[in-house]
Amino acid sequence: MNLPPNSHRLLTLLVALGMILSFVAMGAGSVAAAPSSQPDASLQSGSIVWQGQQVNLTVPNNVASGDTFELRRYDSSNDRTGSFVREFAVDDDRAYLLDSERLSGEYVIVPAGERGTVVQFDSTGTATGTVDAADADPFEVVVQRLRITWETDDITTSDDEVEVEIDSNRARYNMNVTAEGLDFDDLETMFRSTPDHTDASDPVTDRSPFAGHDTYADDDVLVVRGYGDGTLLADFRHIDPGTYTFKFTVTDTGVSTAATPGEDDDDDDPADPAFFEVSDLELTDESVEPGASVSVSATVTNTGGESTTQTVELLVDDDVVGEEELTLEADDSETVSMNVTAPDEPGSYVVELRTGDDSLTGPLTVEAPDEPTDETEPADDDEATEDESPGFGVLVALFGLIGASLIGLRIHTGAHLK
Predict the structure, then answer these.
(1) What's the alpha-carbon Rg for the chain, to the nearest Å?
(2) Domains of the chain listed by start with CATH number
(3) Is pTM beyond 0.85 here?
(4) pLDDT digits (tens, 9 = 90+) for 362-402
(5) Residue 370's pLDDT is what?
(6) Which residues of 95-187 form beta strands (DSSP E)?
(7) Considering the chain, what is the average pLDDT of its residues?
(8) Is 326 helix (H, G, I), strand (E, B) or coil?
(9) How many Cβ atoms from other residues are within 10 Å of residue 223's Cβ?
């Protein structure tokens, strides 16, 4: 192929530009990849996970070869798997980081589509095998309670051993301590001024953040130890007079409480906060045509000790499509039902019913409607020629004969003219 002048040079430049753009695209992809988060604990069958923790799990190929798994509730009273919660896929290392923020109750992990088979995990979060659902040992997600009280009503700048009483349903954990008007040095002086103070507040190293008390010093945050029933010691001798509200936040669950020295605390046995748990999610039909109406229902139970009102939301692929205000007293339950119109595009969708504390999801498949068909079957080509158009072959033969005659006539006439 002959190219115009300079065409070869232009072609070379275009190829080089394409290669550069390819490398840029590859580089952009590698930058966008976020590093994996540090897990708070490892998933272990039969153990407790504290709501809000990020727990790691690994499923070797020799345990389950598939990449996709389901998190399901577990019904211990009947020894069987319960409602579908969510689906997830392990990464290239066969690992996954499970977020327990909106979970509460007993759960199991099953291979996708195999709710009768449950994966078992050891203390490192590694799957060791599978068992029948009836023999499963579920893990339980528990909501942590936390209560902080100052044992001295009138605190002065001469007090060097003010007790801070900690009460929780969890024995070992760490807390972040902050107080408006106090920086890290102030907090460190208060809780670590003597060996006794330090021994009481030293964080445990096998809990988040898996480091020392000064991990978040730049943010004026002090890390201290938490107890099920224990005491911290605070030294106020180097603190300016004033009113300070201290916030204590558990490092891995995010549970927090505030306590102001000198404030009365008359509630000796505070009730557990309200918690709206979702169970028994049902769809009237999991496979529908575009635009069809689907009724979604679930049971919402207030498992806490206080009455409250929350908004219950209905979502399709994370888009809110309906909501309802619900008020429940402690231990009360109510069935919530909402309708959703199936999306116009065929495909697989996730339907979710969510409260402020918990959620459940279920699959919804939208299938394209069947194409309309003609009830009369078309006739065979040969039959159409013989039965429907019996004269067609005769006409074709006649036109062919006329054409041949005309051509022969033209040739014959041409011969005479020569």
Answers:
(1) 36
(2) 41-142 (2.60.40), 146-259 (no CATH), 276-366 (2.60.40.10)
(3) no
(4) 889 999 887 766 655 555 555 444 444 445 454 545 555 55
(5) 75
(6) 95-99, 105-111, 117-121, 127-132, 139-142, 146-150, 162-179
(7) 83
(8) strand
(9) 25
